[in-house]
Design goal:
This protein is an alpha/beta fold. Helix content is 46%, strand content 14%. It has a five-stranded parallel sheet with strand order 2-3-1-4-7, sandwiched between helices. Strands 5-6 form a two-stranded antiparallel ribbon. Strand 5 and strand 6 form a beta hairpin. Bound molecules: BIS(adenosine)-5'-pentaphosphate and zinc ion (2 copies).
Length: 213
């Protein structure tokens, strides 16, 4: 299957995608994770992306389309994929359709993480991440066994630089203005499944499994 996860910051995309990946054994591409890795490694791409990311604005379409175009060429991504955080503009959605058309493929399903903005600040400010695996915790909703330590590796957890109330505000603005039209783009194609993203993680997972079966 070829799946897209779309939703505002903190809606649970990164929490749910590894669960989907295990079940359907797909290639998992998260543009936010890929960009953060480029920023940390100070690559040319990372240097270009950093300023926009720190402000909670979107990185340029050309840059992220290039990343996805390269990644989709990998053998592991030929049978199916999960895109987390891409496309985020209608231009990106159109480019993705072009890329897939060339391969005789199309997007099968768009999982729309529908949630009220008011819930998201608590989700974002309590989030802790294990950078190398992408495992995500929350001080209140999904605490690690020891504070600040990854359950699996014992390595330290970090907080994201853009996970502040001020930057969240700008990320939400970008979402409503630039990314909500992407949901409409896919609604017209009849492939959107709405998820109750404010519910418990297990409940969201079960709605996803129903939508994909
Ligand atoms: P990105 O990394 O994609 O960030 P985002 O979209 O803002 O989404 P988040 O990762 O914050 O949220 P999430 O939905 O994954 O939440 P999570 O599951 O972790 O992008 C970052 C930046 O990169 C962008 O601002 C932009 O600059 C750039 N960028 C990326 N892609 C781009 C593109 N295509 N074009 C242009 N620029 C791009 O959950 C959050 C917290 O809540 C966690 O602590 C979790 O434990 C907890 N939680 C999750 N689910 C639940 C639940 N059901 N109940 C209670 N708590 C929960
Ligand atoms: Zn995420
Ligand atoms: Zn809106």
């Amino acid at each position: 299957k070829r799946l897209i996860l779309v939703g505002p910051p903190g809606s649970g995309k990164g929490t749910q995608s590894p669960l989907i990946k295990d079940e359907y054994c797909l290639c998992h591409l998260a543009t936010g994770d890929m960009l953060r890795a480029a920023v940390a490694a100070k690559t040319r791409l990372g240097v270009k992306a950093k300023e926009a990311m720190d402000k909670g604005e979107l990185v340029s379409d050309d840059l992220v389309v290039g990343i996805i175009d390269d990644a989709l060429k990998k053998p592991s991504c030929q049978k199916g994929f999960i895109l987390d955080g891409f496309p985020r503009t209608v231009v990106q959605a159109e480019k993705l359709d072009e890329m897939l058309e060339k391969r005789g493929a199309k997007v099968d399903k768009v999982l729309n993480f529908a949630i009220d903005d008011a819930i998201l600040e608590e989700r974002i400010t309590g989030r802790w991440i294990h950078p190398s695996s992408g495992r995500t915790y929350h001080t209140k909703f999904a605490p690690p066994k020891a504070p600040g330590i990854d359950d699996v590796t014992g390595e330290p957890l970090i907080q994201r630089k853009d996970d502040t109330p001020a930057v969240l505000k700008s990320r939400l603005e970008s979402f409503h203005r630039q990314t909500e039209p992407v949901i409409d783009y896919y609604k017209k194609k009849g492939i959107v499944a709405n998820l109750p993203a404010e519910k418990k993680p297990e409940e969201v997972t079960s709605v996803i499994n129903k939508a994909l079966s």
